[in-house]
Write a structure and sequence with these properties.
Largest sheet: 9 strands, mixed
CATH superfamily of the domain at 35-200: Galactose-binding domain-like
Distance between the termini: 15 Å
CATH class of the domain at 35-200: Mainly Beta
CATH topology of the domain at 35-200: Jelly Rolls
Structural class: alpha+beta
Helix content: 10-25%
Amino acid sequence: MRTKLLALWVAAMPVTALVSPALAQNLVSGSPRATMTLNGQWQQVLNQDQTKIPASGWSTTRIPALPLTDGTTSVWYQQTFYIPASWVRPGRRFFVQLEKAGHYAAVYFNGAFIGDHFGQFSPFEVEVTQYVVGGKTNQVQIYVHKADTTYVQRGYNVDQSSCPTYNPDCIGNAYRTGTPMNGYIQRNWVGLVGDVTFSWSPNLHISDVFPVSSVRDWTLTATITTSGTSAGAITARATVFDGASAVLSLPSQPVVSGTATLQSPWTTPTLWGPAPYGQPKLYTLQTQLLRNGTVVDTVYTRFGFREVWIDGTDVMLNGQKLWMVGNFFSPLSPIRYINDRREQAFVLWVAENSGSNTVQSHWDDPGASWLELADEMGILVIGAYYCDGRPQIQSKLTDVSAWTSWVVSTTQEWVQARRNHPSIVMWRPMDVLPQEAMPTQGKVFAQAASAIRGLDSTRPIADGSDIDVWGQGLTVAGNPHQCDDGSTYAAKLAGETKPLLTKEIFGDAGLSCAASFFDTFYKDAYTGGGVGLVTPQAIFQDQTFTPTWFSLSGLGNRPTTPQDLPDWISQSWSPTAYSTQFAGLYQQYFQQALPNTSPMSGDYEASGLTSALARSSAFLLPAKGLGNPTGVLIAQDGSGTAWFVVPQAGSYTLVYTNGGKDVTQSVTVSAPPPF
């Protein structure tokens, strides 16, 4: 099968103008907040300790990149970039964020240690304000280390000397996700896998916005959290935009002890969800913080109006019984870590054409780009981040209590970072736990569930708390050649008092009886009251190809070595028997054609951005002001290219510096055409 994917993601009609430096600089530096991606050519040194930033031995690499799974213990990374003097203003705070780094990561800025983090499952941010120097090049250094010794968990020094020679990280592996299939070294990978960003905001700023929509009450509620102190009357207000049009205002409320709750009825929203539950409609919530009536900060948050709840043994999405069907990828499959939106969007489109409306991350947090695309394309997500991968002995716990505390704090970070994605319709933080934690599994799950509910009570938890889970083999016990007849599952489903999600069907899908088994199981689950089913069966045949990319700059890690994936460059894919069968089952039971959705946000590829300044940046600004400046480093290979991803199509202003003068270009970013 060969399916063509239209590749034109952006239309640009640049109009270039030289303007006064003060005017152009003010377009960016005058904004209360801005974000710049530091991705691109970095320097690295492998297998050095953390006591001193290396003075030599650096080599060039692009960051972010696929994880290092070859036994590398640690990596020092370094990036140099120019910060204009006009950016550094009184009352402005600067931050560096790592989207995904494993396992331990420490951030340094201009040689000073700033802060560190344990675990790759959520992004983390540090403030670097006092070390930023305007009008000069600045350096960010990052140290990453595998889960070992003092790099496993804060306050602990783990002794792994008792681990067998074939598995030297048996304790560190308990803090990483993996299976017996991916090897001992690969499980404890190191590297900067996610995007690195530099940003600023005012001293008094909005630190979090959590919009919650209710279909049952037809209301929108936004909880606002602020950071920083300031004299005067502090209030917050919000407006919902559909594209460039304001469609709803949430009345202003005072900020008390750093929080404010805004609410408004809304009876005419377009509901978010895959068909037939809605459509992948996203709105933008513009939230503003005011001091004595003057706006001091503005944040833009995308969200979908939808609600998930439980009714007896059913999970409801927007008032309709939810049915989920999908799969999860192998632990270290390249598709899990190539976080470029082109490849990911193509794979999600392939999933839709395979009868899937659901993705479960399972082995790891999926990352921001996956979730943003799921939001835009109407793909349901089971939020998950950890599976130990027993029964083979790959991990060992020496202190179950300490490990559980780490799980709880990690869950809190993870939910805080991901809860604004409407695609996540239920949480399932963990699957299989390390062997030593199994006797207390109920307590571990309960503590994680409590941590989730403290931050988000709008989604059910599929760990037995709100939704029971089920997993089974494709074949009967004791006979690997005879397929199960579904009777055990039917009995389990009949005795349930909670919704039941089949979180895994495992076994040899190549058996001649497999097709009959899947037909039976799908029918029994769909008609018998199940929530859905997820399997690890492959939905496409890998094709070996070498990716090519427009630029070194911009979002995403982009390997240039051959990869085994659906080839988004040739825009073709080959379905498996499982893909074809489930596409037919979807159409049979949903009584509708397969979905055919596309991303809503667009890429903008800029070229000819010559600059006299090394390591300089370029920014896109929404022409109508509905967004903050988004920047990237201009590619450092002499090509003068810059690669942007913006939340929505429309008119933008491109700003960069050329030969000491600021340049602006009016550009139009178009949404991608349907696949």
